Amino acid sequence: MKPTEGYTRNSFRNNGERGNPSPKIGCVIMASGLSVRFGKNKLFAELEGKTFLERILDTTEGIFARRVVVTRSEEAAEVCQKKGVEVIFHSFPNRNDTVRLGTAFMEGMDGVLFCPCDQPLLRRESLLRLLDAFQEGDILRLAYGEKKGMPVLFDHAYFAELQSLPEKKGGSYLMEKYGERVKAIQATEEYELFDIDTPMDLENLQAYCAKEQEEKGGELP
Question: 191 in helix, strand or coil?
């Protein structure tokens, strides 16, 4: 498969269980990382029998006006195609490229949420909290207590700047620039913000899940 700028597959549009949301919020699933510290493509690392990619696709299904996965992985693009999720498949090198391509795909949306793939325990309830809290001009980010993290939701007023970020910069560049406009929205659970960069991170998260299951019973999301 040859990567091309703006290349998408399928014409899937899902207005979801919430009906046609107002305002209309799109979701960019960021799946372009090189996983250098992890040692292999962490999109296909597994937690409780599901890959990270499968988990985020399930978590984001049905709650956004538009959804797209931005990736350099042909294998990831194939998985998304089978699930009916649109893909921008590219070979650009930097984080700002992923943000630029994803934002351009959200033309006509009132806001865009950038969602990572390496927070495998992210919950739908927390995404809905972000959507419910959204107001014009906002930059909203998920947090737990004082700990700030992702996903991050930007109002459409920032779309032009998101598409012209400095090389190698991501959305954090605008969060620093407009710090007074950034609002923290609390996640339902602390573990949702745990991001996986190394195999040790995954081992620690697996141990955490096992402990939580033992103490509370049942399965984590």
Answer: helix
CA gap 130, 192 in Å, rounded: 14
Backbone angles phi, psi at 52, to 5 degrees: -60, -40
From first to last of its 221 residues, the chain has per-residue pLDDT tens of 554 444 443 322 333 434 444 689 999 999 998 776 787 889 999 998 899 999 999 999 999 999 999 999 999 999 999 999 999 999 998 889 999 999 999 999 999 999 999 999 999 999 999 999 999 999 999 999 999 999 999 999 999 999 999 998 999 999 999 999 999 999 998 889 999 999 999 999 888 888 877 777 666 65
pTM of the model: 0.87
Which residue in 175, 65, 198, 51 sits closest to 117, CA to CA? 51
Candidates 129, 173, 128, 174; CA nearest to 155 is 174
Cα–Cα nearest to 187, from 159, 137, 150: 150
**Largest interatomic CA distance in the chain:** 48
What is the C-alpha separation between 30 and 34, in angstroms, rounded? 11
